[in-house]
Design a protein that fits this description.
It is built from eight helices and nine strands. The protein has about 325 residues and is of the alpha/beta class. The chain has one domain: Rossmann fold (3-Layer(aba) Sandwich), CATH 3.40.50.1820. It has a nine-stranded mixed beta sheet, sandwiched between helices. Helix 5 links the parallel strand 6 and strand 7. About 45% of the residues are buried.
């Protein structure tokens, strides 16, 4: 048998992709362009010895790396960075909820951020809130984007008059069938949907919402910051409006008022679509418009603590 990611069996031949029947996915299943090949993630590396950015690193806490993580669904390898809670090494019998975030190079380290010096500071924020007892200890997985392929992988369909986009379903398969099983094997996770979240900003927010709705049996929490709801003539809004049933997922959704009129109006329309399909603000939907908020890493960093407080409150931690 071909060797692959722990817990996965690789298909011997090309097969149609299967998705849950949410009432809005295409009837015709998509078939990968190439036959899947075996993949084997690289060995675990410790951050302090393996992380050598060109600029001063700001990594905080217990950080691990998985370099050049491969995929049989996506053409490019990518790095994966993992934040572990403060007591992870000491509490060997404890398992933790997990949050998977896109654009991993922007999340933890100012040295690797797209705009050098401007990261989300997720490691510092999580460390502070966990130690203060404000959120449940959790594992946060940052998935680096693949550079030139980011637009293709982070969008569910092609943009009009553009050859780019449309590989969001394959990215979702990478997340659910390759990365998550690997993380659940290597780390002490709580693998159930109620303890598993996915999130991101901009196009990362778009693909996280798309994947979260497609795989609501895998992800029960969605952190959707400033999503590109305008993409493809607001196709994500059309898809939400066409849901035949409401998935049981909890959604944080936000947008800054200074992110552009088109972006603001699209996210407002997305919020309305979610409410029309049964999400209730204050229960399983938290919608925020940040006055003066811009489309920047600094803006997302400033409110990420509130995202964690709402999705991973301290009272959710088991004794």
């Amino acid at each position: 048998m071909a060797r692959g990611i722990p817990g996965n069996t690789l298909p011997e031949e090309k097969k149609p992709l299967e998705f849950p029947d949410m009432g809005w996915l295409p009837v015709d299943s998509f078939v990968a362009e190439t036959t899947p090949v075996p993949v084997e993630p690289k060995a675990l590396e410790e951050a302090k010895s393996a992380h050598t950015p060109q600029h001063q690193s700001t990594l905080t806490g217990n950080i691990r790396f998985h370099r050049s993580f491969p995929s049989r669904f996506l053409a490019r390898e990518r790095d994966v960075i993992v934040y572990l809670p403060p007591d992870y090494d000491e509490r060997a019998e404890t398992h933790y909820p997990v949050l998977y975030m896109q654009d991993g190079q922007n999340l933890f380290d100012a040295a690797t951020a797209y705009i050098q010096g401007h990261d989300w500071k997720i490691d510092e924020t999580a460390e502070t809130l966990i130690r203060a007892g404000e959120i449940a200890p959790l594992i946060i997985v940052g998935v680096y984007n693949s550079g030139e392929s980011r637009i293709d992988e982070y969008t569910p369909n092609k943009e009009l008059r553009s050859p780019r986009g449309g590989k969001g379903r394959l990215y979702g398969r990478f997340m659910t069938e390759e990365l998550k099983p690997f993380i659940d094997t290597v780390y002490r996770t709580k693998p159930g949907r109620l303890d598993t979240g996915i999130g991101g900003s901009s196009l990362g927010g778009l693909v996280s919402l798309f994947t979260g709705l497609n795989y609501s049996d895998v992800f029960g929490k969605l952190a959707i910051l400033s999503p590109s709801a305008w993409w493809g003539r607001q196709s994500i809004i059309t898809r939400v409006s066409g849901l035949s049933r409401k998935p049981a997922v909890k959604i944080w959704l936000d947008i800054g008022t200074h992110e552009g009129h088109g972006s603001l109006e699209a996210v407002r329309a997305l919020r309305s679509a979610l409410v029309s399909r049964g999400w209730a603000e204050g229960a399983d939907l938290h919608y925020v418009e940040i006055e003066g908020g811009q489309h920047t890493e600094d803006a997302w960093a400033a409110r990420f603590g509130d995202v964690l407080r709402w999705l991973y409150p301290s009272n959710a931690q088991e004794p």
